[in-house]
Design goal:
globular; about 45% helix; alpha/beta; 5 helices; five-stranded parallel beta sheet; Rossmann fold
Length: about 120
């Protein structure tokens, strides 16, 4: 079973995303903080990461950079799923190694699940 790590501080969204992806047949781990994400990444290498960039007091780009600089996780595709929408944010995320950048208001969870399936299968 393919593993997805969702890094999202909004517990409501994290729960909805988790339920959707679990129903699609994935094993899902959740991290509501960067500390939880680091712990989870050290414990289990996921097949893909769904990453929000907006966290209180912490730059989400730093988490993306950490994932891509770590030998254990550098090849794991990271899908950014964020409310940030400026061209500069999208370019920065892609330069740091994001596989895709999705603006939350422009995509449904069905579309995200379909995109994940296209990248890692089931």
């Amino acid at each position: 079973m393919k593993k997805i790590l969702i890094i999202e501080d909004d517990t409501f969204l994290n729960d909805i995303e988790s339920k959707k992806l679990t129903s699609e047949g994935y094993s899902v781990a959740n991290a509501n903080s960067f500390e939880d994400a680091v712990t989870e990444l050290e414990k289990n290498t996921p097949d893909i990461v769904l990453l929000d960039l907006m966290f209180p007091g912490i730059d989400g780009f730093a988490m993306l950079e950490k994932i891509k600089k770590d030998d254990k996780t550098k090849n794991v595709p990271v899908l950014v799923f964020s409310n940030l929408s400026s061209d500069a944010d999208i370019i920065r995320a892609k330069e740091l190694g994001a596989h895709e950048f999705f603006i939350k208001s422009n995509f449904t969870l069905d579309e995200i699940a379909s995109k994940i399936s296209g990248i890692i299968g089931k």
